[in-house]
Amino acid sequence: MIASGRGATVTDVDGREYVDYGCSYGPLILGHAHPAVVEAVRDAAGRGTSFGALTEAGAELAERVVDAVPSIEMVRFVNSGTEATMSAIRLARAATGRDRVLKFEGCYHGHADGLLVAAGSGVATLALPDSPGVPAAYAEQTLLAPYNDLAAVEAVFAAHPGEIACVIVEPIAGNMGVVPPAPGFFEGLREICDRDGALLFFDEVITGFRAAYGGTQQALGVLPDLTALGKVIGGGLPVGAYGGPRALMERMAPVGDVYQAGTLSGNPLAMAAGRATLDALRAHECAYARLERGLREAAAAAGATVSVARAGSTLTPFFRDAAPRDYAEARGSDTARFARFHCSDARRGGTPPAEPVRGVVRLARARRGGDRSHPGGGGGSAAGGLTARATHPLSGAGVFPAPGARAPAPGSPEEESVHCRSRRATRILVQR
Ligand SMILES: Cc1ncc(COP(=O)(O)O)c(C=O)c1O
After folding, report:
1. What's the pTM value of the predicted model, to 2 decimals?
2. How many domains does the structure of the chain reveal?
3. What CATH number did the domain enclosing 148 receive?
4. For burial by CB atoms within 10 Å, which of 97, 167, 276, 407 has the most?
């Protein structure tokens, strides 16, 4: 049971301190109790906790989202990622007049009934392919394909022409462990959707303001029709959002005819925390490549075969010799070894995420009392076992390299500087 958190660490009720790799499943990109976020929440709470109306903080957070995320012209705030994906799918169905949704095996999009089909995250960890209580009629509307498999997507569309409202996808899969998209995967999805009249829906609940400030879509250059956000944009308070082109978003009530509402949506505390988080992010140094390098060095020192898949600040050490390309490969990694790593790191005061859930990293120092033995500190290893090898060509980069570009060695100082440069470029775009 956790009593408190500060920066990169949490303390349990018995006073034991842990390095926190989980970060509340992702929102705490700045770490626990970041002073700017605490101050923003305190200030907002002193002026009233809910109005059921727009606030200045809400309007300013919306402006930051619209400025940063290339495909979003209009955004609607809700209270969770689940609400965001669920509501956006309703909009996709209304806009296309179709019922079916295509999702990818191992991708998790929240716990709405129709999306709890071959989901990753806790569902995969518990080896529950579906949840009891989901009506078969809902699940039937959901079609499945393996991640990174365009031929399978083509086959699904061929079997259901003109029936699919949208393709929902984690643009960097995170809920089966980090699995970056294969080159050309999203260009292919975009083309298939356009040909069939389906909408492309990026679930950037994890990747928004992580893979790059403007989300994976900014890094990829492929624009979806709909985007879901959550986690980071609430700075640790309950939030979700969905957005897209104005013409599409204006189908939502009260302007349009598609109903969705929420008593606490746009809550001023969450809006203030999100605004403070995004402002701090724009001004922050980059640290993610250092953690990846530390894990690689630790694995090599331990003689362990580990591939570290990383995209921006999401990261998974896979106990296999190359990073996986899909759910089947992710599940084929040495999970017994991962379990030993997990337990060993937990004993040493870390809280690594349970596979296949992704690790998410916060920009807070993970060094306690000058101890550099933690993988993030670049020293010794908890990785017991095998040789660090090359990983997926995309996974080492903070954002995606230009097509044909030589990727710097994963975790190298050169790679770290690419990541830093890309963040600076992002910052310039955002300030434009
Ligand atoms: C990609 C993705 N989408 C949606 C969700 C659901 O978000 P929430 O837990 O805020 O409902 C999650 C949660 O982890 C997620 O990882």
Report:
1. 0.74
2. 1
3. 3.40.640.10
4. 167
